[in-house]
């Protein structure tokens, strides 16, 4: 299959060499770099396209376009920026079928999940369009009473400039929206780098940006791997950065950004725990736990990978999980009956399967999920491992998995459950299942995580902040907090009195 045979990809997006183009200054342009990476369908293992490894020269061209467009875009005002954003949302709805298919082919997530992502993408653009409009009012310029009538004081919110945005492979288009929406709402212009594994839908969105007449340079897209991202961090034309990726990638980029005194948000890994108490609605809890662990093929930073079960119900609850797992259809993600697709790459498959083997060698009991049969596709079946009570050294307990693997341990008391849940170097999310509101509240207060779900797992709303503590990152995406990433507050103080200062004279 050539790139031009893919829905959402047309001839103008592909160079004469057959490689995809970059999207810079409102046009699809050939990369200066002559190095390319194959883009693989994780189900068929066939090559979908070749994408450029954008060079520092390519990054600087994109950043220059963003710099040139930035002042006018910020000056345009929030209401006009919102018009463009709502037009993009409308086109995303109209292109939902083709973009969902392209996302599934490139990423491997089941098609209905990709459709759900597209709905969230449109909602994200509409939400931040409303916040953009509010920047024309009190949100953008707030009067502050400092208790002294001689001074009139305001706080203005101004665009942070050019934003460099680095995305992960698990939600290619949705993460684009999580970062681009607040950035352009705030008056920033952008240079965006999708994951080297999943560039297709992000590049395809360039057509939507052209269709709605978004001014050239407001959003620019470069493809590539680590060196391309490093060039973005190093670029003197990029003012603020946001990265979603692994803790290792975040530490590297964050240290370089700090050396250059650049503002940077980091949304990194997780190893989230769910606590199931004996008084929970157990059938509902079992489905939510499976959803939290196996949704998006287990490739979510907030995925429920550690399950803590009251010891009095452990065997019965595990039986419920196994019954759900046995019904899950694993296969072609374009088949609407499929509930679990392949992971992103052969490398990731080997990593997860190797981690499971090591966990078993260290004493974990594999109670569900056999090794996948050899054949096409980077599949990992839904897997449940059980650890002995108190085992905190097993690799499945300590390390992020990023695959459809659930690690189970029991607890004897409410206090022990919270302590076990917090026994992680990560602090992104946690879930608690109970019919006791006071118990839910105690757990919510006790969990050292940026997100806590009560009697559910993984629901995400663009109005709420997303991010965590410890090695899960720095800062927050989404909500009003996401908007603040791309704004710089400026205090303005005006002396109103007719009287002289009277200090020197």
Task: Produce a short descriptive summary.
The chain has 505 residues and is α/β, with parallel strands linked by helices. The chain contains 15 helices and 22 strands. Residues 28-492 form the Aldehyde dehydrogenase domain.
Describe the structure.
The protein has 505 residues and is α/β, with parallel strands linked by helices. It has 2 domains: 3-268 and 463-491, Aldehyde Dehydrogenase, Chain A, domain 1 (3-Layer(aba) Sandwich); 273-454, Aldehyde Dehydrogenase, Chain A, domain 2 (3-Layer(aba) Sandwich). The protein is built from 15 helices and 22 strands. It has helices at 56-75, 78-94, 96-107, 111-134, 172-185, 200-211, 226-234, 247-259, 282-294, 314-327, 346-361, 395-398, 414-421, 437-446, 479-484, and strands at residues 22-24, 27-29, 36-40, 47-52, 141-144, 151-159, 162-166, 189-193, 219-221, 240-244, 263-267, 272-276, 304-310, 365-368, 383-386, 405-411, 426-427, 429-433, 451-454, 469-470, 473-474, 487-495. The strands form 6 sheets. Strands 14-15-16-13-12-18-19 form a 7-stranded mixed β-sheet, sandwiched between helices. Pfam families: Aldedh (PF00171). Belongs to the aldehyde dehydrogenase family.
């Amino acid at each position: 299959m050539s790139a031009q045979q893919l829905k959402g990809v047309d001839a103008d997006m592909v160079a004469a060499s057959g490689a995809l183009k970059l999207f810079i200054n409102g046009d699809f342009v050939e990369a200066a770099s002559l190095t390319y990476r194959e883009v693989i369908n994780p189900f068929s293992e066939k090559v979908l396209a070749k994408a450029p490894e954008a060079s520092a020269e390519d990054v600087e061209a994109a950043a220059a376009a963003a710099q040139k467009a930035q002042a006018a875009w910020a000056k345009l005002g929030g209401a006009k920026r919102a018009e463009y954003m709502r037009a993009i949302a409308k086109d995303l709805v109209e292109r939902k079928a083709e973009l969902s298919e392209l996302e599934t082919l490139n990423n491997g997530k089941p098609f209905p999940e990709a459709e759900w992502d597209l709905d969230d993408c449109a909602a994200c653009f509409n939400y931040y369009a409303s916040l953009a409009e509010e920047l024309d009012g009190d949100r953008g310029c707030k009067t502050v009473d400092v208790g002294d009538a001689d001074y009139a004081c305001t706080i203005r919110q101004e665009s942070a400039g050019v934003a460099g945005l680095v995305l992960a492979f698990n939600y290619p288009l949705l993460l684009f929206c999580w970062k681009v929406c607040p950035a352009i709402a705030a008056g920033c212009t952008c240079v965006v780098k999708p994951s080297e594994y999943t560039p297709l839908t992000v590049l395809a969105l360039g057509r939507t940006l052209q269709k709605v007449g978004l001014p050239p340079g407001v959003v620019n897209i470069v493809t590539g791997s680590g060196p391309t991202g490093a060039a973005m961090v190093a670029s003197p034309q990029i003012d603020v950065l946001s990265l979603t990726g692994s803790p290792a990638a975040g530490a590297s980029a964050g240290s370089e950004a700090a050396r250059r005194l650049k503002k940077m948000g980091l949304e990194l890994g997780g190893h989230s725990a769910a606590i199931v108490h004996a008084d929970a609605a157990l059938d509902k809890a079992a489905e939510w736990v499976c959803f939290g662990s196996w949704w998006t093929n287990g490739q979510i930073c907030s995925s429920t990978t550690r399950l803590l079960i009251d010891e009095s119900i452990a065997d019965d609850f595990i039986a419920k999980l196994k019954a759900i797992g046995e019904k899950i259809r694993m296969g072609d993600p374009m088949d609407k009956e499929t509930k679990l697709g392949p992971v992103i790459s052969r490398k990731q498959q080997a990593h997860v399967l190797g981690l499971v083997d090591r966990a078993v060698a260290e004493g974990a009991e594999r109670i569900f999920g056999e090794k996948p049969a050899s054949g096409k596709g980077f599949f990992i079946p839904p897997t449940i491992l059980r650890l002995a009570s108190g085992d905190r050294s097993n690799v499945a307990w300590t390390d992020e998995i990023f695959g459809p693997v659930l690690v189970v341990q029991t607890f004897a008391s409410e206090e022990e459950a919270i302590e076990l849940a917090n026994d992680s170097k990560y602090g992104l999310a946690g879930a608690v299942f109970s019919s006791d509101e006071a118990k839910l509240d105690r757990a919510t207060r006790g969990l050292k995580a940026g997100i806590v779900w009560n009697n559910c797992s993984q629901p995400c709303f663009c109005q709420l902040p997303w991010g965590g503590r410890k090695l899960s990152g720095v800062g927050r995406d989404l909500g009003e907090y996401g908007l603040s990433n791309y704004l710089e507050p400026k205090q303005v103080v005006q002396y109103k009195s007719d009287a002289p200062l009277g200090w020197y004279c």
